[in-house]
User: Which sequence fits this backbone?
């Protein structure tokens, strides 16, 4: 865990620690920036641009001092769908609009409210994204073109595998991808000194070296150059705003990027003892970064837990480390862009398959199922909805289920009946009577004898909604048989009679 707040020993009291941490984060971020861009269907350089902005622009702003921002695997599916639907020039407009919305929400101090989003919905969202990423990148690892929809990606995998094995180029490509995943899985088990170099970087370097030495027929990253890749949105790109469908995508960008960033901030706060995250300021910082990314036509960004945890574990003490990591990305993009052309695409696919797998919370799902099955159902339903439908509607389904579950849990109601055999039957309702529990309430009331007087006491209710009130009044009017005293509704406080004996 990181040390406490720096003491005032100059402007950069922990420059040595932050410098060392920035190099580690740079080495972690480099392959992820490129891999996320390629998987999103945009030039690899745009991933570096977003990483640079996340480091230098967002990194300089207040909010969360140690978390690191950049292109995230969690937005890969959404960006790919957006580029396919609206075109690459419109990507900058989407990201710009999302950034401006984040700035507005931060100014309105709405950042803290994102913590009210059900954790099960967020984890289900990430799990669904992870499944789609894994399925899509398995095609990329084989050098094949993936289907458009999530369900088609998954159902088409067996046939794609048979086609790949029958070809001449795909086996080599699959071997590079599988080797990359193997390095990433085995790397954490190596001695700590060997793990000083990030596993993703080692996997990419090994894949590039093996492909080069053996002259394997695998595709590599296409390089356009940083200035050529950066295309600020022009007037024609803003014409996409005339399509009503684009606003759902903007809302999805904003919701998912904000929620992922602020949940990441909460996770990073648990890793160190330094200053806590100021959520509204962090949302402003994310909005500023996405606004700049939009103006540059780059990928959207979020805070990324992989880079952030690497930053903390590498000994970072202040925001200097994340700013420097952005500087190193800028230096690399400016001086060594041709090095990207040596990276095999199946190696990037392997990195993203591994990243997608880590997005699926297997342990969390098992513990939820044992203790909170309703939350586990929400998690699974959100993930499955994203695979079957799309990202935005899947998240909305998850949120709707979460709200419905909360309403159901909050509407506990209890009906106690006291019948002494003579005199009126006493019925006592307590709790929260809402339309969700109305069928159960009415079933119990309709079972009361119709040839006896009934008194229904409502004073124990904390809440009685309109639907329940009307239903109870209607039941009271119709329940009693002819010649029997009508049902009496009482709102005066009344105690349940003590049990006999």
Assistant:
């Amino acid at each position: 865990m990181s040390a406490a707040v720096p003491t005032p020993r100059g402007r950069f009291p922990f420059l040595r620690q932050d410098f060392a941490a920035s190099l580690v984060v740079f080495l972690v971020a480099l392959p992820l920036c490129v891999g996320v861009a390629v998987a999103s269907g945009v030039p690899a350089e745009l991933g570096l641009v977003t990483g640079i902005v996340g480091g230098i622009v967002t990194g300089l702003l207040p909010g969360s001092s140690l978390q690191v921002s950049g292109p995230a695997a969690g937005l890969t599916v959404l960006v790919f769908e957006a580029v396919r639907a609206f075109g690459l020039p419109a990507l900058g407009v989407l990201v710009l609009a999302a950034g401006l919305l984040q700035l507005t929400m931060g100014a309105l101090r709405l950042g803290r409210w994102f913590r009210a989003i059900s954790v099960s919905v967020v984890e289900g969202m990430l799990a669904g994204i992870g499944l789609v990423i894994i399925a899509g990148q398995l095609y990329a690892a084989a050098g094949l073109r993936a289907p458009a929809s999530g369900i088609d990606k998954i159902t088409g995998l067996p046939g794609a595998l048979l086609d790949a094995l029958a070809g001449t180029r795909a086996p080599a490509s699959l071997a590079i991808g599988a080797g990359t995943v193997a390095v990433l899985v085995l790397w954490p088990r190596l001695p700590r000194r060997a793990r000083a170099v990030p596993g993703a970087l080692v996997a990419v370097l090994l894949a590039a070296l093996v492909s080069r030495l053996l002259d394997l027929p695998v595709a590599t990253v296409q390089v356009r150059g940083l200035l050529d890749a950066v295309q600020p949105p022009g007037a024609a790109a803003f014409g996409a705003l005339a399509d009503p469908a684009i606003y759902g995508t903007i809302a999805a960008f904003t919701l998912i990027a904000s929620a992922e960033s602020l949940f990441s901030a909460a996770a990073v706060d648990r890793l160190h003892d330094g200053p806590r995250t100021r959520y509204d300021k962090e949302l402003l910082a994310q909005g500023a970064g996405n606004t700049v990314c939009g103006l540059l036509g780059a990928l959207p960004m979020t805070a990324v837990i992989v880079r952030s945890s690497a930053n903390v574990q590498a000994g970072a003490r202040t925001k200097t480390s994340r700013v420097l990591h952005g500087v190193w990305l800028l230096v690399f993009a400016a001086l060594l862009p041709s090095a990207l052309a040596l990276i095999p695409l199946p190696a990037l696919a392997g990195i993203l398959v591994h990243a997608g797998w880590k997005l699926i919370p297997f342990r969390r799902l098992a513990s939820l199922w044992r203790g909170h099955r309703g939350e586990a159902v929400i998690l699974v339903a959100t993930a499955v909805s994203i695979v079957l439908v799309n990202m935005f509607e899947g998240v909305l389904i998850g949120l709707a289920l979460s709200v419905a579950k909360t309403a159901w849990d909050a509407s506990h109601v209890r009906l106690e009946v006291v019948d002494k055999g003579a005199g009126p039957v006493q019925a006592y309702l307590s709790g929260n009577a809402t339309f969700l529990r109305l069928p159960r309430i009415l079933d119990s009331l309709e079972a009361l004898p119709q040839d006896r007087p009934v008194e229904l006491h409502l004073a124990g209710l904390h809440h009685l909604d309109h639907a329940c009130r009307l239903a109870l009044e209607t039941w009271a009017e119709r329940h009693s048989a002819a010649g029997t005293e009508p049902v009496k509704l009482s709102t005066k406080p009344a105690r349940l009679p003590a049990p006999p004996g």
